[in-house]
Design goal:
252 residues, alpha/beta, Rossmann fold, seven-stranded parallel beta sheet, globular, binds NADP nicotinamide-adenine-dinucleotide phosphate
Length: 252
């Protein structure tokens, strides 16, 4: 039920963190994977790890803000593996943090384009390819920030990531009758290069915000992505699925 045999999946942000762990898990579960990110060497390293396990992976390095890159990724999936069933649009950027009065328009635009516009571009080319297969699973990585928690200093990140939930709901409603499910995955704090802590105390503080008193390993978030990608979630669409260690409900 959680297996992905015969499926083809695009994973963006596959060079690091949650995307890398998800690429490995999807491949372990039988999917052929198309890995995207800007750093070619890191993507190739993930593809090599996957190849060592006997699964198939191809890579394309580029910027998800670029419409041509979104189209080329889908063309690669179709050209190499014959179609597209799953897309995990997972790229994210926290960007400049601080009071909105000091946030530059350039930083705001960068966060919105990286986190939200990239999702629109991805969906625009992924959905027609999924329709060709008679269905599919489209997933966006959002966050609890801007959904259940208002975090000071994170306006651009929160607004752009919350926008993904609106996009998820509309696409789920538009494509449900054609066999495509669309969901957002909302991780809590996760131990990746994005979650850098200046001090041990800062890390302890963030861990303490979670009911489970720790942050996630990327492999734990990957398992929630697998749930959304696989038939295990066959009646789940339009959802904002929290995998957040209870950071949303915890009151210390
Ligand atoms: N870590 C957390 O605590 C946490 C919590 C909630 C939600 N999230 C979300 O989870 C997702 C994955 O984050 P992560 O924690 O795994 O962070 P990460 O390890 O920093 O990974 C981010 C990935 O995005 C790629 N990327 C960034 N900008 C890109 C661009 N313009 N074009 C193409 N690829 C780009 C990076 O690859 P390149 O550098 O090679 O381009 C990298 O593979 C993000 O959407 C993030 O917002 C993370």
């Amino acid at each position: 039920m959680f297996g992905l045999n015969g499926k083809v999946a695009i994973i963006t942000g596959a060079s690091s963190g949650i995307g890398r762990a998800t690429a490995r898990l999807f491949a372990d579960q039988g999917a052929k994977v198309v890995l995207a990110g800007r750093r070619a060497a890191e993507l190739d390293a993930v593809a090599a790890e996957i190849a060592m396990t006997g699964s198939e992976a191809v890579t394309l390095n580029g910027d998800v803000k670029d419409e041509a890159f979104a189209r080329e990724l889908v063309e690669l999936a179709v050209g190499e593996f014959g179609g597209l069933d799953i897309a995990f649009n997972n790229v994210g950027l926290v960007g400049e943090m601080g009071p909105i009065t000091e946030l530059s328009l350039a930083s705001w635009n960068d966060a919105v384009e990286t986190n939200l516009t990239s999702a629109y571009l991805g969906a625009k080319y992924q959905l027609p390819a999924m329709l060709e297969r008679g269905g599919g699973s489209l997933i966006f990585t959002s966050t609890f920030v801007g959904h259940t928690v208002g975090m000071p200093g994170m306006a651009a990140y929160a607004a752009s990531k919350a926008g993904l939930i609106g996009l998820t709901q509309v696409l789920a409603a538009e494509y449900g009758s054609q066999g495509i499910r669309v969901n957002a995955l909302l991780p809590g704090g996760t131990d990746t290069p994005m979650a850098t802590f200046k001090t041990a105390d800062e890390r302890k503080f963030v861990e303490g915000l979670h009911a489970l008193k720790r942050i996630a390993q990327p492999e734990e978030i990957a398992r929630s992505a697998l749930y959304l990608a696989s038939e295990a979630s066959s009646f789940t669409t339009g959802a904002a699925l929290l995998a957040d260690g209870g950071v949303s409900i915890n009151r210390l």
